[in-house]
Amino acid sequence: MVKSELPSTFRAFRFQQHRWSCGPANLFRKMVMEIIRNKKVRFWKKVYVIYSFFFVRKVIAHWVTFCFYCVVLPLTILVPEVKVPIWGSVYIPSIITVLNSVGTPRSIHLLFYWILFENVMSLHRTKATLIGLFEAGRANEWVVTAKLGSGQSAKRNTKGLKKFPRIFKLPDRLNTLELGFAAFLFVCGCYDYVHGKNNYFIYLFLQTMSFFISGLGWIGTYVPS
Length: 225
Prior knowledge:
It comes from Brassica oleracea var. oleracea. By secondary structure, the chain is mainly alpha-helical. It has helices at residues 10-37, 43-78, 86-101, 111-134, 152-158, 176-195, 201-215.
């Protein structure tokens, strides 16, 4: 393991995650038939590369997270005929999350916040994989991840921030996609609070807050444009 620097702004982090999700999906689209037709690669290696490395890790993983936690689970509240068993909605995801966190015990106290934030980012990763698979408008976009740096470079980059007033224009930071999902989850949470029986509203309100905070851009460092 080596030390690395995270993007300082939420906007830069979104661009980074878009690139990391869109790129592999687009590469999968372009290379899958060539991998299948390649006679020098053994069958099981083809299966591993196509199914495990590309399809499951780079495509399906994002879709499952977003669709289940941000779409299916909230919609089961509005459509009571559809029921998700408690082992599928709580127990199995919790076990998988705990097992994934074993390697970083010092950050175990951030696990709950990480889950909520990962659900927010799954929205962008799912969108990016679709753009990559269908080679839509931003499939070939390359935006270098902006980082403020540390030490003297950070001081140089933040000198100009004093010129800006504390009150900034909200459109500079608003992320309408997150705010839209925050409104959707809030409505589902209110409905479950009034009519529900599984107490999903606790999770939905917490997830609403994470989408709302992300939608307002209250994450990372703010650099006025």
